[in-house]
Design goal:
Hemocyanin, N-terminal domain; heme binding; EC 1.11.1.6; 682 residues; Catalase; Rossmann fold; alpha/beta; catalase activity; Catalase HpII,  Chain A, domain 1; 10-stranded antiparallel beta sheet; 18 helices; heme
Length: 682
C-alpha cells in the first residue's frame, strides 16, 4: 500500500476490520444504547401474573432487533462460505496492464473469497450437482477489484437478458416448490432443450466438475473475456483462471448424495478445518492473453461466454498465488453481507462486449440495493476498500460516513471544487477507447451460433471414467424428468455432440435412440480432463478402523508415517474413547461407525484387532464396501487383512496389504495420493 494512502487514512484490511470486532467475553450485558441491563430472563409485568408492560424498553429493543435480523437471501449463490487471505504476485504484468497490484513481484494484497452453490437456498446441502461460485475481492490501493467467477469456465447463456429465464427454470417448480438445489426436473431440462446455446455448459454440469470433493480442490474461472490495458493505452483480451495447488478432484454421484445426508455442511466444514489446522488452501492465478489484433483468428468467438479458449491454443500463464489463511469471525457480517460486482475494477482492467458480462454489469448493483437495504452497502466493513473514498454521494439507509462541510455537489467554489476528479496520470480510471459503430439491433453475432463443437471437444477430452460419469449423470437427471417429450428433445440435442452418448442415454431413460448425428469437431484439450490434474496425498483424511487387541507398535509407526506424509488419520471404532492394543498401547477413537461414515473420508486403513466381534466386523465390512465402490484407496494390516479377504477386494487396484510398516506405508501413501482407482471392478 502506498504511503499516500496510509497518510490519508488507508489501513490494511485486518486493521480496518479490527475496530468493528466485538468480543463479549467478560462483559456486562447492555442495550444497544450502552445501558447496562439487570435482567434478561423476564419481561416487565404488572404483577407476577399480569400483562407485559410496553415501557419495558429492553424487551421491545431485543424483540424488534430479532424480528428484523434476516435479510433477503441471494436469489442465486445463497449457499456460501467465505474466508480471508492474501494474493502474492509472482510475475509483473506491466507489459499488459497498469493495475498497481499486478506490477511488482512479491507484492501482496488482502483478499476475501466466497464460494457458493448456485441453485439452492441458503439451507440446502453442500454437494448438489451444480455450478460453484468462486468470487474473489482484491482490496487494492486503487480500490476493490472483484473477480466474480465460477468453477466452470463457460455459462448456460450468451446474453444477460436470458438470465432470469435460466434461473426461473432451474429453481424449484412454482406449482410444487420442489426440487430443492437440483436440476433434475422438467422445467430446467425444458429450458435446456429449447435454448441449445447451453449445450457446452451441460457437458460441464454433467461431468464430475459439478460435484467437487471439496472447495480446496476445484478450479475457478473468470468466465468472461476482460481487457488488460497498459500505461501506453494498448489493450489485450484476458481470461482469468484459479488453479488449485492440490489438483482438481471430485466425488462420485452415489457418494455425493450420501454426504449430503450424513453431513450437509461437508465442504464448508472441510475448508474451515483446513484453515484452522494451518493447511491453508492455495490457488495460483493464471491468465490467458490474446492481442486485440488476433480477435478473429480462432474457430470460436473470443467474446462468447459459452466458449473456452483451449489452453493448448492459448496457454495459461501463472502470475501469482492466493492463500486463504483466516476464517471469518461472523458469517452474517462477512460472508452474507459481502457484495461482489464484476464492475468493481481498477485502472488497467476493463470490459469487453461479451453480452452476458454487459448484463451482469447492471444486475449486481441492482440486486444489492434490495438485499442489503440501500445504496450504502459499500460502507459495511467487509465491503469497504482499504484505500480512502471520497465523493458527493450522501445519506440513505445505513449511512456510516459523517461528511463534513457544506458542499455535496460538483463543480463548486465553496470547497475549491473538491473532491475533484483525478487525471489518468493521477490514477483516475479512464475507460478503454474502443471504437464502436453500427445500427441498433436486437440480435447476436453469427459467430456465436456454433453451440456443439466445443461441447464435443469437452466430451472427446474426457477419460473413460469421466465419460461414464457424464452418461450416468444425463441418465439420472433425465430419468427424473416426467415429460417424455422433454427427455426425447434433450437426447436429440445430445446427438449433436456425440451420437453414442445420446444412444446410451436414450436406452437408459426409455426414449427413441437417435439414428444419426454426432459432431465432426475432433479437437481435444487434455487440460479439460481431471485425470491430468495434480495428485497429492496432502491434507486427505483417512479413516483408521481399530478395535481392542491391535498390534500397537505397527499401528503407531503407520499412524506417525501417515502424519509425516501430511495426511490426517482419524480413529474410527464402535465407541469413542481409548482402545488398548495387545502390547498395552492405547490409542483414542475420535469417531464411531455412526459419526465416521466412509463417505466423509478420502481413504480407509483397516486394522481391526483380536477382540473384533460380529457387530464390529459388519460395520467395518460396510466401510470397506462403500470405500471400494467409490474407488477410494484401501489399506489393511494385521487382522484387518481378513476383513478385506471377506469382502473379496484383495488384490484389486488401490487395495494395499502388508504387515510390515516399512513396506505398507509407502505403497499405501501412493495409493492415497492417486485419490481414485478407476480401473478396479466394482
Amino acid at each position: 500500500m502506498s504511503d499516500e494512502h496510509k497518510v490519508n487514512g488507508g489501513k490494511s484490511k485486518d486493521e480496518q476490520l479490527e475496530k468493528f470486532r466485538s468480543d463479549e467475553r467478560d462483559k456486562h450485558m447492555t442495550t444497544n444504547q450502552g445501558l447496562k441491563v439487570s435482567e434478561d430472563e423476564f419481561s416487565l409485568k404488572a404483577g407476577e401474573r399480569g400483562p407485559t408492560l410496553m415501557e419495558d424498553f429492553h424487551f421491545r429493543e431485543k424483540m424488534t432487533h430479532f424480528d428484523h435480523e434476516r435479510i433477503p437471501e441471494r436469489v442465486v449463490h445463497a449457499r456460501g462460505y467465505g474466508a480471508h487471505g492474501e494474493f502474492e504476485l509472482y510475475k509483473s504484468m506491466k507489459p499488459y496492464t497498469k493495475a498497481n497490484f499486478l506490477q511488482e513481484p512479491g507484492s501482496k494484497v488482502p483478499v476475501f473469497v466466497r464460494f457458493s452453490t448456485v441453485a439452492g437456498s441458503k439451507g440446502s446441502p453442500d454437494i448438489p450437482r451444480d455450478v460453484r461460485g468462486f468470487a474473489t475481492k482484491f482490496y487494492t490501493d486503487e480500490g476493490n477489484f472483484d473477480l466474480v467467477g465460477n468453477n466452470m469456465p463457460v455459462f448456460f447463456i450468451q446474453d444477460g437478458i436470458k438470465f432470469p429465464d435460466l434461473i426461473h427454470a432451474v429453481k424449484p417448480e412454482p406449482d410444487t416448490g420442489y426440487p430443492q438445489a437440483a436440476s433434475a426436473h422438467d422445467t430446467f431440462w425444458d429450458f435446456i432443450a429449447n435454448n441449445q446455446e447451453s449445450a457446452h455448459m451441460m457437458m460441464w454440469l454433467m461431468s464430475p466438475r459439478a460435484i467437487p470433493r471439496n472447495l480446496r480442490m476445484m478450479e475457478g474461472f473468470g468466465v468472461h473475456t476482460f481487457r488488460f490495458v497498459n500505461e501506453e493505452g494498448k489493450a489485450h483480451f484476458v481470461k482469468f483462471h484459479w488453479k488449485p495447488t492440490l489438483g482438481v478432484h471430485s466425488t462420485v454421484w452415489d457418494e455425493a448424495q450420501k454426504i449430503n445426508g450424513k453431513d450437509p455442511d461437508f465442504t464448508r466444514r472441510d475448508i474451515h478445518e483446513s484453515i484452522e489446522n494451518g493447511d491453508y488452501p492455495e490457488w495460483e492465478l493464471g491468465v490467458q492473453i490474446v492481442p486485440e489484433e488476433d480477435e478473429f483468428k480462432f474457430d470460436f468467438d473470443v467474446l462468447d461466454p459459452t466458449k473456452i479458449w483451449p489452453e493448448e491454443d492459448v496457454p495459461v500463464e501463472i502470475i501469482g498465488k492466493m492463500t486463504l489463511n483466516r476464517n471469518v469471525d461472523n458469517v452474517f457480517a462477512e460472508t452474507e453481507q459481502v457484495a461482489f460486482h464484476p464492475g468493481h475494477v481498477v485502472p488497467g482492467i476493463d470490459f469487453t462486449n461479451d453480452p452476458l458480462l454487459q448484463g451482469r454489469l447492471f444486475s449486481y448493483t441492482d440486486t444489492q440495493l434490495i438485499r442489503l437495504g440501500g445504496p450504502n452497502f459499500h460502507e459495511l466493513p467487509i465491503n469497504r476498500p482499504v484505500c480512502p473514498f471520497h465523493n458527493n454521494q450522501r445519506d440513505g439507509y445505513g449511512r456510516q460516513t459523517i461528511n463534513v462541510g457544506k458542499t455535496s455537489y460538483h463543480k463548486n467554489s465553496l470547497a475549491k471544487n473538491h473532491p475533484r476528479p483525478a487525471s489518468e496520470e493521477e490514477g483516475g480510471y479512464v475507460h478503454y477507447q474502443e471504437k464502436v459503430e453500427g445500427r441498433k439491433v436486437q440480435a447476436r453475432s453469427e459467430s456465436f451460433k456454433d453451440h456443439f463443437s466445443q461441447a464435443a471437444m469437452f466430451y472427446n477430452s474426457m477419460s473413460d471414467p469421466e465419460k461414464k460419469h457424464i452418461e450416468e449423470a444425463f441418465s439420472f437427471e433425465l430419468g427424473m424428468v416426467e415429460d417424455k417429450d422433454i427427455r426425447q428433445q434433450v437426447v436429440d440435442m445430445v446427438s449433436n455432440i456425440d451420437l453414442s452418448l445420446s444412444q446410451a442415454v436414450a436406452e437408459n431413460i426409455g426414449v427413441d435412440a437417435p439414428a444419426e448425428g454426432g459432431n465432426d469437431y475432433k479437437k481435444i484439450s487434455p487440460a479439460l480432463s481431471q485425470e491430468n490434474t495434480t495428485h497429492k496425498a496432502d491434507t486427505l483424511k483417512i479413516a483408521v478402523v481399530l478395535d481392542e487387541g491391535f498390534d500397537g507398535d505397527a499401528v503407531k509407526k503407520t499412524l506417525e508415517g501417515l502424519k509425516d506424509n501430511h495426511t490426517y488419520p482419524v480413529i474410527v471404532s464402535k465407541s469413542l474413547g481409548r482402545l488398548k492394543g495387545a502390547d498395552g498401547t492405547e490409542i483414542e477413537a475420535t469417531a464411531t461407525f455412526d459419526t465416521g461414515d466412509p463417505v466423509l473420508f478420502d481413504a480407509l486403513y483397516v486394522v481391526g484387532g483380536s477382540e473384533m466381534d460380529n457387530a464390529f466386523k459388519r460395520q467395518a465390512g460396510y466401510m470397506v464396501h462403500e470405500m471400494f465402490n467409490h474407488y477410494k484407496p484401501i489399506g489393511a494390516t494385521g487382522t484387518g487383512r481378513k476383513l478385506l479377504e471377506s469382502a473379496n477386494v484383495s488384490g484389486e487396484p488401490g487395495v494395499v496389504q502388508d504387515d510390515i510398516p516399512e513396506n505398507f506405508l509407502p505403497s499405501f501413501v501412493d495409493a492415497v495420493a492417486a485419490h481414485r482407482h478407476w480401473d478396479r471392478q466394482v
